[in-house]
Amino acid sequence: MSQYTPMQKRQPGPAGQTGVYASLDELMRLRYRASGFSFLPRQPIHSILSGRHASRLRGRGLNFEELRNYLPGDDVRNIDWKVTARTREPYIRVYTEEKDRTVWLLIDQRLSMFFGSKKKMKSVVAAEATALAAWRVLSQGDRVGAIIFDDTELDVIPPHRSEERVAQILKRLVKKNHALNAGVDTEPGPHMLNRALKRVAALARHDCLVCLIGDGTGIDRDTQKYVTRLTEHNDVISVFVYDPLEQAMPEAGRLFFSDGISELEFNTQRRSLRQSYSDDFQKRTERMEATSRRHAIPLLPVHTAAPVLEQVREVLGRHGR
Fold it and tell me: Can you tell me the distance from the alpha carbon of 227 to that of 292, in angstroms, rounded to the nearest whole number?
């Protein structure tokens, strides 16, 4: 029978615990390994992360993109007179132009991320994915900023194109990461996901890339509202961080879980309990996939049981294909 018991308070663990807490030195060194992958899909219009991005423009650009019907306000110099004469309807030629881009990274460091049954905590995996993305953005000449959130507050680092800005993001991220502890009195904050989305929706006005890095805890109807607002004028991708144990509970007798406030003892021999556990993860995954389909947001799954860089290279390669 399940029972709750008070948890013994503990001080935050040492930063050097491999896999439990992120290492600033390791995140900084990822700069030299952030290669062999790109968030650039193989489409001529919606480039996502590579340093030069194609965008729809009505003026003259560098490369011809398409023909389309003339709309009020279009530059008459771009009218294709031959096609217009043949179809008897005004058509214009649309071109693409290269430009740099602002990238916003939203990184989840809530208590729900302080979990891992394999090599690393989800919070550490999120930190490494952030470092890889930030260094990749900088290497391509784009600006990078971040919103790092835990269960109570947001840290906002404005976008800038510099090594110092990436270092600042990683230092603030490591500080949040090292504050995570299962014995603290902080209440879990599922609402913080929407608070972070609302903030970035106000900051990412136009032609930005917004990269969400977390486990999707807290997705609800308001999430859809903020994501809709973001995708009207920006690109959004989601890095879904999870642990294999979240997918299926093993039949291993009695296990103890914690939400940071209380401990819960499970008898994993109960089939109905294991099924309910798996169903909860499946529902969260389905909510994320539904949001991804509705707004054409690439969903990139990354788990705690394998090196992050290898997964990023593999999943982005598959996504590009």
Answer: 10
CA distance 11 to 13: 6
Helix (H, G, I), strand (E, B) or coil at 272: helix
Cα-based distances in Å from 139 to 38, 79, 161: 11, 38, 9
At 250 the pLDDT is: 65
161-185 burial string, b = 16+ CB within 10 Å, else e? beeebbebbbebbbebbbebbbebe
Q: How far is CA 202 from the centre of its chain?
A: 17
pLDDT given for residue 13 in this prediction:
47
Give the 3-state secondary structure of residue 242: strand
Sign (positive or negative) of CA dihedral 267, 272, 276, 278: positive
* Architecture of the structural domain at 4-45+100-320: 3-Layer(aba) Sandwich (3.40)
- Of residues 247, 251, 269, the one with CA closest to residue 117: 247
Q: Are 195 and 166 in contact (CB under 8 A)?
A: no
Q: What residues does each domain of the chain span? A: 4-45+100-320, 54-99
Task: Indicate the pairing of strand 143-149 with strand 154-160.
Answer: antiparallel
The low-confidence residues of the chain, meaning pLDDT below 50, are: 1-16, 41-61, 319-321
User: What is the pTM for the complete model shown?
Assistant: 0.74
HSE (side-chain half, CA atoms, 13 Å) at 145 = 17
Q: Please tell me the distance from the alpha carbon of residue 157 to that of residue 209, in angstroms, as a whole number.
A: 15
Torsion of CA 268, 271, 276, 278, to 10 degrees: 80
Q: What is the C-alpha separation between 192 and 152, in angstroms, rounded?
A: 7
pLDDT in tens, 54-113: 444 333 335 666 788 888 878 888 899 999 999 999 998 876 555 678 999 999 999 999
Measure the CA–CA gap between 126 and 283, rounded to whole angstroms: 21
> Cα separation of 240 and 261, whole Å?
25
Three-state DSSP class for 20?
coil
At 279, which helix (H) or strand (E)? helix 271-295
- Measure CA of the first residue to CA of the last residue in the chain; give whole Å: 49
**Structure letter (DSSP) for residue 32:** G
